[in-house]
Amino acid sequence: MSMWNPWRGCKKCSEGCLHCYIHKGDAKRGVNTEEIVQTKDFDKPVLKLKNGNYKMKTGIVYTCFSTDFLIEEADEWRAQCWNMIRQRQDCTFLFLTKRIDRFAQCIPDDWGDGYENVVVCCTVENQKNADYKLDIFQKLPIKHKCITAQPLLEEIHLEKYLDGIELVVVGGESDYQARPLHYDWVLKIREECIQKNVSFEFRQCGTNFIKDGKQYRLQTKDLCSQAKKAGIDFKRK
Ligand code: SF4
Prior knowledge:
Layout: E1 2-4, E2 7-8, H1 21-29, E3 37-38, E4 59-63, H2 75-87, E5 91-97, E6 118-124, H3 127-137, E7 144-149, E8 165-171, E9 181-182, H4 183-195, E10 199-204, E11 208-211, E12 214-217, H5 223-230
Parallel strand pairs: 1-4, 4-5, 5-6, 6-7, 7-8, 8-10, 9-11
Antiparallel strand pairs: 2-3, 11-12
The protein binds iron/sulfur cluster.
Iron/sulfur cluster binds next to loops.
């Protein structure tokens, strides 16, 4: 598993961005998140060791986890990224995006029905965004599609968008002012996934977690482990 952030910085673009951890981290360091700049790791996937092997290991590559791969400010750099992705067929590049409506204008000429080694996760947090973004997402030529409902901000229904989806990930918000995540919302999405035979993962509870009418304030370090304890993940058959 590797991380690759060819650029850094991002701009808030949806309700889920309110407590963005990139913005919070940058604010502490006095960095302007809205300035999108290339990082020193831009060429990371194709850098080689003296023996000619790639420095970056074969396997999954979490791409643009401190930005958005489809952000407009990176349009002129993305073609080089596609070249590197094409070159590293031994790696699977996974990115999340809140800008799926830009996808069609961001793909390379030879994209066809998608690159086998690219996984795209479309992020939604409420029904309005689910209806807008997933309607676009389901029509796009992408070989491997996932949905990330995180931070989930209200009860949403995904059923009509689950055809062709490999995995749905659900989670809450991590912040001292976090908006609540109701466990019932999580279970409803899980039920839809099981009905449609789509893998489901409850990734993390969120700081402000509501279960059986009771509010729980969770520490950041416990968000994932508490979700795992629920034991509700589902693997498609
Ligand atoms: S799209 Fe993601 S990285 Fe960008 S501001 Fe929103 S939450 Fe942060």
